[in-house]
Amino acid sequence: MVSADESIRWELRQRLIAIEARVTWAGRLTTGDLRRAFGISRSQASKDLARYQELCPWNLRYDRHEKCYRARDDFRPRFLHGTAREFLRALHFTGEGGASPLTSIAADITSVEVLEPPQREFDVITLQRVNTAVRESRALVVEYISMNTAAPRELELSPHALVFTGSRWHVRAHSTYHHDFRDFLLSRMRPVPELGGAAARGVDQDHDWQTMVNVRIGAHPGLSPAQQAIIEHDFGMVSGVLERRMRLALVPYYLQLMRVGKGDTERDPASQQIVLLNATELGRYDRLSRGSYS
Predict the structure, then answer these.
(1) Which pLDDT score is estimated for 42?
(2) DSSP codes, 108-120
(3) Cα angle for residues 129, 167, 150 (degrees, 5° grid)
(4) CB-count exposure of residue 48 (10 Å: 0-12, 13-18, 19+)
(5) CA-based end-to-end distance of the chain
(6) Which residues contact 208 (CB under 8 A, 6 or more apart)?
(7) What are the pLDDT digits (tens) for 170-184?
(8) Do the Cβ atoms of 142 and 192 come closer than 8 Å?
(9) Based on C-alpha coordinates, what's the Rg of the chain?
(10) Predicted pLDDT at 250
(11) In angstroms, what CA-CA distances link 175 with 132, 159, 201?
């Protein structure tokens, strides 16, 4: 969240954020909306609205007929980023029982449905142990269930980072068994891992984590110029390219998330729509051809 004025106390800033969110997403705001969201008095809600108008005089207008505040034609968010991701996060946490100013406002927006893939669940104590091991540079001893083995295998891991790929959480860690840094799903650690001594390897020794590469995506060349322009706008491409700089270890997951890779241009443009532009460049890294999870 963008802070407009560091001198504004935290509680007031949350209510100012809520005012802006309500007007942005629901189109209108009343003092009752603020009272229900924060449990404040009518006079406090009126003061908050006056404070917001003082800070952002160009954003709100009062509709005397409907007795509510609406956005002016030149409305520009000051406390919000104003992105699709921000809106989605608010809706998501509303569904999970969240209580932030954004979720309290988004809860009233009943005409939105969100489809998301199921999440791979894991024991919360597993997360606690992994976080402790990362923070204190300690080893973990885990019973790990792999798709490549018939039975669980005891592994000693030296973790240094957690990663969320959109549907799964994994830990980036060095495995003494594999003599390498790999990715291990939290959902496959059974039972809860045990904390060990000092980590055998650290993040500085993880080549794929330290190596940064650029991933470049563009519209499918088989689309018409008009269709390509639509795709470029959809993805916020600059000069026809969506470029992301990221750790080499994360590239396979990003490509899976975007559904791009080798052979993109050979597939039907109507269904593929976007393609990986620098597949040859990325192909020089042998690691990308290896399976993502252990």
Answers:
(1) 92
(2) T-TT-----PPP-
(3) 70
(4) buried
(5) 36
(6) 181, 247, 248, 249, 287
(7) 999 999 999 999 999
(8) no
(9) 24
(10) 94
(11) 17, 9, 9
- The residues that bridge with 274 in the sheet, in sequence order, are 219
SS3 (DSSP) at 179: coil
Burial of 208 (0-12, 13-18, 19+ CB in 10 A): buried
Write down the pTM of the prediction.
0.74
205-241: per-residue pLDDT in tens? Answer: 999 999 999 999 999 999 999 999 999 999 999 999 9
Is 91 in contact with 114 (CB distance < 8 Å)? yes
Task: Name the fold adopted by 10-106.
Answer: Arc Repressor Mutant, subunit A (1.10.10)
- Residue whose token pair is 């532009």: 277
Is residue 186 within 8 Å of residue 129, measured between CB atoms?
no
CB 28 within 8 A of CB 68: yes
Distances from the Cα of 109 to the Cα of 24, 26, 100, 218, angstroms: 11, 7, 15, 34
- Average pLDDT score, the chain: 86
CB of 199 within 8 A of CB of 137?
Answer: yes
Cis upstream peptide for 193 (omega within 30°): no
| Domain ranges (residues) in the chain | 10-106, 124-206, 211-289
- Residues 150-171: tens digit of each pLDDT: 788 999 999 999 999 988 899 9
Q: What tokens were used for 184?
A: 């291990």
